[in-house]
Backbone:
């Protein structure tokens, strides 16, 4: 995976990462509903929805989502 953000189409025209969009696309690519991801990562569906909308980009929650989706944390630009 050379550039996870580009392959997910989550880089905006200004080169910024749309983290919420990347989470949504990653979740959908894996075939997960919000509820499925919620059960897998231990966050509530409301927390995941807020992340996907870009309202909440807490790095701890994003790490849990990346682990649940079996993605490297760099997918969401986390160290």
Residues:
């Amino acid at each position: 995976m050379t550039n996870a953000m580009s392959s997910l189409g989550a880089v905006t025209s200004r080169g910024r990462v749309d983290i919420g969009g990347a989470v949504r696309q990653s979740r959908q690519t894996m075939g997960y509903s919000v509820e499925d991801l919620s059960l897998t990562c231990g966050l509530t569906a409301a927390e995941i929805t807020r992340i996907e909308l870009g309202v909440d980009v807490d790095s701890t929650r994003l790490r849990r989502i990346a682990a649940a989706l079996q993605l490297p944390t760099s997918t969401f630009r986390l160290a």
The first helix runs from residue 4 to 8. The two ends are 16 Å apart (CA to CA).
